[in-house]
């Protein structure tokens, strides 16, 4: 008999030693970096970034082309859920090992099939006569023929009657709704043998089982559902260890193998009585063997999940684990007569059985057992009473002749005894009963809510949304424009309520109560619904027009066919739901929203005057001094509107649309939280979850991760086509680009600048008043003599290529259709949505052949508001954006949005390739730096805000030459402030300096030696006080200036993370007392922090090795351990250089570790602690260990603080020089000899008194 351990070893040895694969350790079963998964459920999970082209530059998987391993998998909860089947049969498991081998653009079908056959028949020694192969038989709907290649490859090993075709259900594999996919081929084994078992393949016969699946990834499914060929083809195979071991050991049950035998024996040792006998179904009369299988399976699952960082809890994957544990305990106690606390005692046996394959498990046993024991004890307190309650309820139902457990009784088991609904359903099933699930959900929905958001409905069209006492939204009448007329609800209205119903369901956000009303007017039918969520603190309003509607254009019927209109248009929605009456209470609330080009933030009091249609149709935040409520469209983003009309705040889609399609649906979300930033963060989590958002190209996009050079603004040292009279001025040319590259090389920056944006070179030099359109995406002589590809090779950089819009007559109009638009005399064209995918595929293929690795679309406001078709045709603008996105995603080309409207950012929830957007105006404008409030929307949508390109030094000849932008614009001002803002934005740091005039000191404060930007983990965003202070009647409490907050996370031990906070204050000319709520996440001052100011005068604050940290001025003072210890802000130091116009300070708060040590971080960096430099920080006896990453031969200095006093009032500065020999290194900071005195001998002179300023 071949032991399971040897089955695993033989597999890995075969592929690693004989077939040249790299062994890649199993990823944790808890996928902390993949929000789409509860648990790792397949071997390919950790390789998704390779398949999707999203691999981070420093990933250990870089360069891997062949891999093999045994992956830990859990299938419980989510799409793949085997929990309910475990125990009922002998082959389902919630935890299992997946043996797999992968090829990433290396070998393909031939090798995969031949090696699978070799392993099974020659290494494992399986009888070839019992093997059957299935392959993809083609599918007309997919437009794919039979996989003849796979078929012919199998016919080299098997006769034709054992090579079987199947459809897409069985033999076409897809990662998700979009992404890589392809046909697959499965190997099936007949346990019986000596017969023709072809008809039993894929027929759920327990004796003819699938043992191996070979997936041939060769296609990409786009957003439109169409398949295209992948540029690189991959292999992904998976074979369950437990199942193949049962075949090799000739066991009909996985539980009869040596993988489970010792664990089953351990259960019997704990519970006594009859040992496991393998009975199933009707033969297992007392369900004793079912309980054995459930207990051992769940013990493996919980041990591995907890070891990898998960913990049983009341939410998410934690709740799945809690359900699993309680299911196992209930079966053990009721069916095996197990003693209390038996389950956690199985952990040592699980560790012993699994640690040979996963060595890390051997050190986690005690911690896992302790956590499970605590959870088991908590359930033990109620499980007996719960089972007694159920037994008495069962007897009562039998007496009454009833066969259903009432919903309120099921809720009582859940609420009082901790029995999840599925556990009650299982108990009821065993007793021959069912459960009133709807009644349970009703009781659950109207039990105590988890947030302060309340919804009240009177059974008609009236409802109220309340957040505490201050924030209340009262419904206004429903209005609907169709068939050329308005219809409304109410006593005299023509919209009549036909029916209403209340029901209970669940979706991605959890369980909800839904109130649905059907309305009619003439021959029109509409539905309005409100879904009130129990645990998500959310209400989703839904409007539906099932039969569609025509003649819906109530607002702008005379808009000229050629456009010429950029007005945002306060056009009311076609169907206004929800709509709210503008009460005096509502007018007194503060509001925050985003409006117009660059999605700029707008805030104030009385939201009515700001509800302005198509250019301000993103989220609206209402707030008082403590709470905040967010109202936002959830779909149809390009045509969604908030308007103030008919005395009400109305939401829906714009009545500029001429019709609504059949099946029209529009949703609006309301959610709430304590604090504005927290509410926006929670809002972002909800919409990201609903859209399954993953910014797939974010980690690999060089624009947002590395230094870049942009000819946008940089070009104006050499040419100026926009501001010369009438346009048509001097063009930026080839020579100037090469001059810039040589300048960067002289300054040792060329290698660090990873990508080059090309802007002005598109413009062919013809006259235009505002901006030039694109006639042909090629370089134009005489300014350029090299091709785009040649120029890329000359400067040594790939391109971020740019389009503002296309000319009405361009070289592509003969091949593709375009829509026309105009604003004033600016005429332009946009690819027609049905032609757009083919057009952008052509365009991007050309770009990639010539060095393009990124794409920027500018003037998105023009490309919507000034295109009549996009404003009148439902979904047209969305389909145009999706076509552009699909072409980019297929080619792994990241997209930047420029001059975007809020609706463009919202639409990017469906556009995974969009990584960043311009959040600032052009560089020379006076408020160009101000992106803190606008970045809040990017934070919610996982988009990186982009500060426009910047100059790091004012050129010596700028005033005389008038370049860039002319002397009156004060070019080159606030250089350091702009570098800091760009760094803290998490977006691009964009250089645009004249050749040879870059201030390298400022540049290197933002990046590593390879140009990787040392960023925080969140865009720096305005603190809540920026907005809430407008509600104050006390002038002393009104906020002046700007304060932006962000943070950086670094891993600590045991899956924990440490946080460093950063605050940037600008023009704070009146002292402002910081509070815990000024930080996000809210600062817990009791943890203990130290504060450090970046500047003293014009230079970085000195922290000198061996000096005392507080008294030398390195720190602002001793430990911050309460809110009262937080400093006051006041930007009172001199401006940095003569032409600066703003005063600013950068403040860092570093956590005091449990042993008193502090990591201040990297010397001379704005974000001195960033996860792009620091991998892990951990305490050690008498010191601190720090793991870093960098570039071989790079040098940097790291500063830590050693505690000098036990009361944490003074530290000694320890500085270490780090030289990287490899890409990672570890340094230890250790204490000096001797003990720590109880108190410092000298009190710091900066401690006494109040911190009025940060100097």
From TrEMBL:
Top-rank lineage group of the source organism: Eukaryota
Catalytic activity line of the entry: tRNA(Ala) + L-alanine + ATP = L-alanyl-tRNA(Ala) + AMP + diphosphate
Record keywords: Aminoacyl-tRNA synthetase, ATP-binding, Cytoplasm, Ligase, Mitochondrion, Nucleotide-binding, Protein biosynthesis, RNA-binding, tRNA-binding
Primary location recorded for the protein, binned into one broad class: mitochondrion
EC top class named in words: ligase
EC number of the protein: 6.1.1.7
MF-aspect GO terms: ligase activity
Role according to the record: Catalyzes the attachment of alanine to tRNA(Ala) in a two-step reaction: alanine is first activated by ATP to form Ala-AMP and then transferred to the acceptor end of tRNA(Ala). Also edits incorrectly charged tRNA(Ala) via its editing domain.
Protein name: Alanine--tRNA ligase
Source organism of this protein record: Durusdinium trenchii
């Amino acid at each position: 008999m071949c032991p399971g351990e040897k089955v695993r070893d033989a597999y890995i040895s075969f592929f690693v030693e004989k077939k040249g694969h790299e062994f890649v350790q199993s990823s944790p079963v808890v996928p902390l970096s993949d929000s789409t998964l509860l648990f790792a459920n397949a071997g390919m999970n950790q390789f998704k970034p390779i398949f999707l082209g999203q691999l981070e530059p420093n990933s250990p998987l870089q360069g891997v082309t062949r891999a093999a391993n045994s992956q830990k998998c859990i299938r419980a909860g989510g799409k793949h859920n085997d929990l309910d089947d475990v125990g009922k049969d002998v082959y389902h498991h919630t935890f299992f090992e997946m043996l797999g081998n992968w090829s990433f653009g290396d070998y393909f079908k031939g090798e995969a099939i031949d090696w699978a056959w070799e392993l099974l028949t020659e290494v494992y020694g399986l009888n070839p006569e019992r093997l059957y192969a299935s392959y993809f038989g083609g599918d007309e709907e997919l437009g794919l023929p039979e996989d003849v290649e796979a078929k012919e490859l199998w016919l080299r090993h098997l006769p034709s009657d054992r090579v079987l075709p199947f459809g897409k259900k069985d033999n076409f594999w897809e990662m998700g709704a979009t992404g890589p996919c392809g046909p697959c081929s499965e190997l099936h084994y007949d346990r019986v043998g000596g017969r023709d078992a072809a008809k039993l393949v894929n027929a759920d016969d327990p004796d003819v089982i699938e043992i191996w699946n070979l997936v041939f990834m060769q296609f990409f499914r786009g957003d439109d559902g169409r398949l295209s060929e992948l540029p690189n083809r991959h292999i992904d195979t998976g074979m369950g260890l437990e199942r193949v071991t049962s075949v090799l050991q000739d066991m009909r049950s996985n539980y009869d193998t040596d993988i489970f035998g010792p664990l089953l024996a351990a259960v019997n040792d704990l519970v006594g009585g009859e040992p496991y006998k393998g009975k199933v179904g009707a033969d297992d009369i007392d369900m004793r063997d079912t309980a054995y299988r459930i207990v051992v399976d769940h013990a493996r699952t919980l041990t591995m999940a907890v070891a990898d960082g998960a913990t049983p809890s009341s939410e998410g994957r934690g709740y799945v684990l809690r359900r699993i544990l309680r299911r196992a305990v209930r079966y053990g106690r009721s069916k095996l007569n197990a003693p209390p606390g038996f389950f956690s005692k199985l952990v040592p046996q699980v560790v012993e059985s699994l640690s040979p394959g996963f060595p890390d498990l051997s050190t986690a046993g005690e911690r896992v057992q302790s956590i499970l024991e605590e959870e088991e004890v908590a359930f033990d307190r109620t499980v007996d009473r719960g089972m007694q309650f159920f037994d008495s309820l069962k007897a009562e139902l039998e007496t009454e002749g009833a066969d259903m457990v009432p919903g309120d009784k099921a809720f009582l088991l859940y609420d009082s005894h901790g029995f999840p609904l599925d556990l009650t359903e299982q108990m009821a099933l065993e007793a021959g009963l069912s459960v009133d699930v709807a009644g349970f959900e009703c009781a659950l929905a109207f039990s105590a809510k988890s947030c302060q958001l309340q919804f009240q409905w009177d059974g008609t069209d009236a409802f109220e949304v309340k957040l505490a006492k201050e924030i209340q939204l009262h419904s206004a009448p429903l209005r609907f424009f169709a068939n050329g007329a308005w219809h409304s609800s109410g006593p005299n209205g023509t919209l009549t309520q036909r029916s209403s119903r209340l029901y209970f369901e669940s979706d991605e956000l959890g369980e909800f109560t839904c109130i649905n009303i059907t309305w009619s007017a003439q021959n029109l039918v509409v539905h309005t619904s409100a879904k009130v969520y129990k645990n998500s603190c959310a209400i989703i309003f839904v409007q539906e027009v099932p039969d569609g509607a025509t003649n819906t254009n109530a607002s702008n019927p005379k808009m000229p066919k050629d456009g010429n209109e950029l007005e945002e248009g306060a056009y009311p929605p076609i169907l206004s739901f929800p709509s709210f009456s503008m009460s005096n209470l509502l007018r007194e609330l503060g509001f925050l929203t985003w409006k117009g080009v660059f999605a700029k933030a707008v805030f104030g009091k009385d939201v009515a005057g700001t509800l302005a249609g198509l250019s301000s149709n993103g989220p609206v935040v209402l707030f008082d001094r403590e709470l905040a409520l967010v109202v936002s469209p959830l779909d149809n983003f390009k045509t969604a509107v908030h308007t103030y009309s008919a005395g009400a705040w109305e939401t829906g889609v714009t009545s500029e649309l001429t019709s609504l399609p059949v099946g029209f649906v529009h949703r609006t979300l309301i959610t709430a939280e304590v604090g504005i930033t927290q509410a926006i963060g929670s809002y972002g989590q909800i919409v990201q979850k609903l859209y399954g958002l993953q910014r797939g190209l974010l980690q690999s996009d060089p624009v947002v991760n590395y230094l870049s050079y942009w000819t946008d603004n940089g070009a104006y040292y050499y040419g100026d086509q926009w501001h010369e009279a009438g346009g048509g001025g001097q063009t930026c040319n080839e020579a100037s680009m090469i001059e810039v590259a040589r300048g960067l090389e002289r300054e040792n920056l060329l290698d660090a600048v990873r990508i080059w944006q090309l802007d002005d070179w598109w413009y062919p030099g013809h006259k235009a008043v505002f901006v030039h359109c694109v006639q042909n995406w090629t370089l134009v002589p005489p300014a350029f003599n090299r091709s785009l590809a040649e120029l890329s090779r000359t400067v040594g950089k790939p391109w971020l290529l740019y389009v503002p819009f296309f000319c009405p007559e361009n070289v592509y109009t003969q091949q593709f259709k375009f829509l026309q638009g105009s604003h004033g005399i600016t005429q332009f064209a946009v690819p027609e949505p049905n032609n757009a995918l083919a057009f952008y595929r052509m365009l991007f293929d050309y770009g990639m052949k010539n060095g393009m690795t990124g794409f920027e679309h500018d003037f998105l406001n023009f490309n919507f508001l000034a295109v009549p078709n996009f404003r009148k045709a439902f979904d047209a603008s969305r389909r145009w954006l999706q076509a552009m996105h699909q072409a980019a995603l297929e080619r792994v080309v990241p997209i930047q949005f420029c001059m975007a409207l809020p609706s463009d950012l919202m639409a990017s929830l469906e556009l995974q390739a969009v990584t960043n957007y311009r959040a600032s105006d052009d560089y020379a404008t006076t408020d160009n730096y101000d992106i803190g409030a606008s970045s809040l929307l990017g934070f919610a949508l996982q988009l990186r805000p982009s500060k426009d390109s910047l100059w790091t030094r004012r050129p010596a000849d700028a005033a005389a030459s008038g370049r860039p932008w002319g002397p009156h614009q004060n070019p080159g001002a606030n250089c350091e402030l702009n570098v800091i803002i760009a760094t803290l934005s998490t977006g691009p740091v964009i250089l645009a300096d004249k050749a040879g005039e870059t201030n390298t000191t400022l540049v290197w404060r933002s990046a590593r030696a390879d140009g990787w930007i040392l960023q925080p983990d969140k865009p720096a965003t305005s603190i809540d006080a920026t907005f809430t202070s407008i509600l104050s009647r006390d002038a002393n409490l009104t906020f002046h200036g700007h304060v932006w907050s962000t943070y950086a996370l670094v891993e600590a031990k045991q899956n924990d993370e440490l946080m460093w906070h950063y605050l940037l204050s600008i023009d704070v000319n009146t002292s402002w007392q910081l509070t815990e709520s000024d930080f996000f996440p809210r600062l817990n001052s009791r943890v203990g922090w130290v504060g450090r100011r970046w500047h003293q005068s014009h230079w970085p604050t000195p922290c000198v090795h061996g000096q005392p940290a507080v008294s030398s001025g390195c720190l602002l003072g001793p430990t911050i351990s309460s809110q009262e210890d937080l400093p006051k802000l006041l930007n009172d130091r001199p401006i940095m250089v003569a032409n600066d116009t703003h005063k600013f300070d950068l403040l860092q708060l570093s956590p005091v570790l449990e042993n008193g040590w502090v990591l201040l971080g990297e010397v001379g960096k704005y974000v001195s602690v960033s996860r792009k430099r620091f991998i892990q920080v951990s305490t050690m006896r008498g010191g601190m260990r720090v793991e870093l990453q960098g570039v071989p031969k790079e040098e940097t200095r790291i500063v830590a603080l050693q505690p000098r006093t036990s009361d944490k009032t003074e530290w000694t500065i320890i500085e270490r020089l780090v030289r990287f020999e490899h890409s990672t290194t570890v340094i230890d900071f250790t204490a000096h000899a001797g003990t720590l005195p109880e108190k410092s001998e000298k009190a710091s002179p900066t401690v006494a008194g109040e911190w009025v300023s940060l100097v």
